[in-house]
Amino acid sequence: MRIEAILDLPSMPLASPSYPKGPYRFVDREYMVITYETDPEIVRRQLPEPLEPASSPLVHYEWIKMPDSSGFGSYTESGLVIPCHFRGEEMNFVSQMYLDDDPPITAGREIWGFPKKYAHPKLEIVKDTLTGTLAYAGQLVATGTMAYKHESMAGNGQSTTATLSKTATNLKLIPGVDGRPAVCQLVAYNLTEITVKGSWSGPGRLHLIPHVNAPVADLPVRRIVGAHHYIADLTLPYGRVLYDYLRQ
């Protein structure tokens, strides 16, 4: 294979790339997000500098079902997102992510630095309850429940679109062949081409169980603030570097 063909590959391995080139389109992406208060000192420890905590110690626990994802197929993920600030801008730090499909794990880690690990999340409707679960290594580590479509969000989806459009940031850490960091960056991205198809609020509950390799319970639930269920089409584009630790 010639050098120009090598440089045009979207990903490894050469014989069968793990994922195609982006951007990546998602259709009927379904979210259940339970927002809660936790301990402020724990939030500070979980945020990498130079990110700063938001004024309130909030955490968004997410389940996301993605039945139609270009290049990735159908999968579900679950994890923790921490509101924060970077040089005065409000954004979300993606702290932990667990999902059940290899291509988005590989692409997420290699391109944007998503903290993805393989696990078994599920989001489903059980009678009158929207129910999310997360199992890791055969053990249940998270359960979230929300009353199903109790209250439709007012307006035309602008509030939900603003939520989806908010800047998110990941800590991208990739070691070199010598074991030292070859890439160490805060990477930011913004979802685009968003069409909200439905949005509902209502009561929710969240139960987190300690696990050494899926430590979602390290950010304990102190008070449930609210729950949000929504469905949208959107595009995940490439990102940008906010902060390069190796060049500071």
What key attributes describe this structure?
248 residues, mainly beta, twelve-stranded mixed beta sheet, 4 helices, 16 strands
Number of helices: 4
Question: What structural class is derived from the secondary structure elements?
Answer: mainly beta
Shape: globular
Count of DSSP strands: 16
Element-level helix/strand string: HEHEEEEHEEEEEHEEEEEE
C-alpha Rg, in Å? 18 Å
Helicity level: 10-25%
Give the domain tally.
1
CATH homologous superfamily identity? Acetoacetate decarboxylase-like
Low-confidence stretches: none
Which CATH class applies here? Mainly Beta
Give the integer mean of the pLDDT values: 96
User: How far is the first residue's CA from the last residue's CA?
Assistant: 37 Å
CATH architecture, by name, is Beta Barrel
Largest sheet: 12 strands, mixed
**Topology-level CATH name:** Acetoacetate decarboxylase-like
Architecture blueprint of SSEs:
Layout: H1 3-7, E1 24-37, H2 40-46, E2 52-53, E3 58-69, E4 73-86, E5 89-99, H3 102-112, E6 116-118, E7 120-126, E8 129-136, E9 139-147, E10 151-152, H4 158-165, E11 168-175, E12 181-189, E13 192-202, E14 204-208, E15 223-236, E16 240-244
Parallel strand pairs: 5-6, 5-11
Antiparallel strand pairs: 1-3, 1-15, 2-4, 3-4, 4-5, 7-8, 8-9, 9-14, 10-13, 11-12, 12-16, 13-15
Description:
It is a single chain. The mean pLDDT is about 95. The protein has one domain (about 20-245): Acetoacetate decarboxylase-like, CATH 2.40.400.10. The longest helix is centred in the middle third of the chain and has 11 residues, at about 100-110. It is mainly beta. About 10% of the residues lie in helices and about 55% in strands. The protein is globular. Strands 1, 2, 3, 4, 5, 6, 10, 11, 12, 13, 15 and 16 form a 12-stranded mixed beta sheet that branches. Strands 7-8-9-14 form a 4-stranded antiparallel beta sheet, with no helix packed on it. β4 (about 75-85) and β5 (about 90-100) form a beta hairpin. It contains 4 helices and 16 strands.
